[in-house]
Amino acid sequence: MTESCEVAIVGSGFAGSLLARVLAVLGYDVVLFERGTHPRFAIGESSTPLANLSLERIGIRYGLADCYNLATHGRWLEHFPELRRGLKRGFTYYRHHPGKPFANRGLDSERLLVAASPSDSLSDTHWLRADVDHHFVREAVAAGVDYRDCVDLTSADVGTDSVRLAGSRNGAPFELRANFLIDASGPPGFLARQLSIPSGLENTETRSALVFSHFDGVRLMKDVVPGLPEGPYPDDWAAVHHLIDEGWMYSLRFDDGVTSAGFLLTPKGIASLKSSDTSDAGTLWRAMLERYPTLASAFADATPVMPIAFLPVIQHRLTRAAGERWALMPHTFAFVDPLFSTGIAWGLRAVERLALAFESAAQGKRVPDVELLTRYDAALGAEADQIDLVVAGAYEAMAHFDLFAAQAMLYFTTVSFAEVSQRLKPTEAAAWRGFLGVGDPVLGPLPREALRRLKRIADSRGGVGTSDSRRGFKDWLTHAIAPRNIAGLADPARRNLYPVDFDALIEGHALLGMTRDQVLQGLPALRGIGAPA
């Protein structure tokens, strides 16, 4: 016999499980497939204000109290202390140079801090994905989702009226007919293989490898480099980025003392390690630490809690994201790089979009309209391009810290304007607004132009350009982002230390198309006052 359901979802990470649960709440018959079992390790751990905003909207719209409570560090601790997480107050950056300890030059240090929240209670979080993903699976099951783990799917026949899946569970074969199929399995993508969707990776800019693990005993930067000027938050309670000649390193500290860390290495960076065995993850990890004394000091007593792993290329990109009877979640469609923590936010935005599409179809043919699926496909394509351009520009700028700090202002202007706009002027259409400035007449074109300018600068003086060319880029970018700069960014007086600036927001009310009084009335929404319990 062939079983049947309305919606089949492949992959039970947070995006697949949460979407399955929402659809079950909407009355759909959903089967959720998982190749392995939970709890299981996953990377992609750093949330952002836009991610939390999507999670809040999902929680409020569909009556999922846990989603709302997991959207800030304070509410998370109050309601789900058993789920491991880390406090993320913002984005911290340091520039290191081979063979030299990090230079503490006070306010002239190669250091950038950008706050993402005004307090610990409203802070973003690092997600210990083994705990968080497992939580969302359990909640999906409680909502009525038919969850099946240990599944090996072998084929998908996509027709005009249904999708027929075949596979086995614990060795027992099965067949399933679904009205619609969603692939949330990640790369290389089950459905992409079945439909022979071509890769679009050759048309993208960013390339990096990753060597990574979780570690116990990583020292705080404030202890390794004492005496740094006080910033808008403690440096270590953030997404910490160490910029190096070969790429960069992330360090995400969880509240229980475990740190997720990894080196993102460019092809040029890998090639420079000729004296090291780049095929062995542990050897490569040690070789990178040996090049940078401050990082070596921070990890001197650290021990991996899982084997150090190596991925030679982390980027992937497909050329289609949806069809008449199927859709891909963002992490299955494309992945660029974790440099600006876009993964969770982009995935949750897609959960919102597909949930709304099914919501509108619930009283009709019960599958999303082709027009909405076409819109979804176009949105993911444009947004993947945009993320790639922003990240590629940052890689081009890494050779000189001031150049990188200027490029970072493009990202922070874009996301701060989007978050504030969506909080002060909430609308159901927010889920369909372009991610990372896509569709914005001011911000949309800037990543491509910034990358073009940065490549021209990098062609001279060993990649750092001349002082005049760097100054010219900073001046151009400061002027270009001004119509959307409601956060007081790109201000030399800040000395690269940016708090959440409500005064700048109030003064920039006209940039939001609002009066001063309207912004003042909306401030409680930004401070978490009067929000649903």
Per DSSP, what share of the residues sits in E-state strands of 2 or more residues? Answer: 15-25%
Helix % is 25-40%
CATH level 1 class label of the largest domain: Alpha Beta
Rg for CA atoms = 23 Å
Given as residue ranges, the uncertain stretches (5+ residues, pLDDT < 50) are none
Going by CATH, the homologous superfamily of the largest domain would be FAD/NAD(P)-binding domain
Shape: globular
Report the CATH topology name of the largest domain.
Answer: FAD/NAD(P)-binding domain
Give a topology summary:
Elements: E1 3-10, H1 14-25, E2 30-33, H2 49-62, H3 65-69, H4 73-79, E3 85-88, E4 90-95, E5 111-115, E6 124-127, H5 129-142, E7 146-148, E8 151-158, E9 163-169, E10 172-183, H6 190-195, E11 209-216, H7 221-224, E12 239-244, E13 247-253, E14 259-265, H8 267-271, H9 281-291, H10 293-298, E15 303-304, E16 309-311, E17 316-317, E18 322-323, E19 326-328, H11 330-333, E20 334-335, H12 343-361, H13 370-397, H14 401-424, H15 446-458, H16 467-481, E21 497-498, H17 502-507, H18 516-527
Parallel strand pairs: 1-2, 1-10, 2-7, 4-12, 5-21, 10-19
Antiparallel strand pairs: 3-6, 4-5, 8-9, 9-10, 11-14, 11-15, 11-16, 12-13, 13-14, 17-20, 18-19
Helix pairs in contact: 1-5, 1-12, 2-12, 13-14, 13-15, 14-16, 15-16
